[in-house]
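Entry 14: structure prediction run for Short-chain dehydrogenase/reductase. Input pasted below.
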Amino acid sequence: MTQANQRKEKVWFITGSSRGFGRIWTEAALKRGDNVVATARNLESIADLKAAYGNHVLILAVDVINAEQVKSAIDQAHKHFGRLDIVFNNAGYSLVGTIEESKPEEIRALYETNIIGPVNVLQAAIPYLREQGYGHILGTSSALGMYSNPLIGYYSSSKFAFEAIYDSMAKEVRPFGINVTIIEPGAYNTEFGSRESLKFAGRHIEAYDTFKQEVMDGIGQLERGNPQATVNAIFAVVDEENPPLRLLLGKHELPKIKEVFNDRIKVWEAWKEISAAAQG
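Run finished. Output tokens:
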């Protein structure tokens, strides 16, 4: 067993602890007796955690796009609990709209939160984990980091990038005893559709209205999972000596991803002679 897994109580650092999966996983870790550094942009949204769990929780106001604030929070977390066992990037939101409708400033803001923000956390935390010689870095991506759907192309692109960063990092930090796991949820009944987690493109193009309504109707018919049912899966991963790089949450996504990748392979195979000829 690694040093981290020998410890009965783990120390978690979690971004986006105020709602959705972040709130559920934060409370679950505290309920099982672990210590958690819970962070959110609005400190009042997580103040009740301190009242409920006392010295087991440190609550900090963190906007992940503020690199200095992130670094200060990681430093405080390490000083307060003496170590970091689990660093969990969970903050993020979705931008809804067609590729044509979304404005550059909206796309940049999405990437700041969904990509640069997590990188700020990683760059602040990894030095501590390297020095310890152990640790587990988790990140909430999405099954949509494997394929994309209409109206959320920019969100999916941010998760494609997120997965690439974590994939590369896993190889880089493995020699230091640090594990990496990407969490890939499917559709769940969380607050991800709230105003704080969902933003709509500021430009409206009428030509897409019928198509967008059809897509939204389809989304509304999705079978959504119970987010509370994900807790044991997260615990299984963080308690595992050799955790997986990727973990899907839900029963519908693996068949979909198999279908997507099989289709890609068929196309690559159909064009392989032209591809090979391009080698020169």
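Notes: DSSP finds ten helices and nine strands in the chain. Will compare against the previous run tomorrow.
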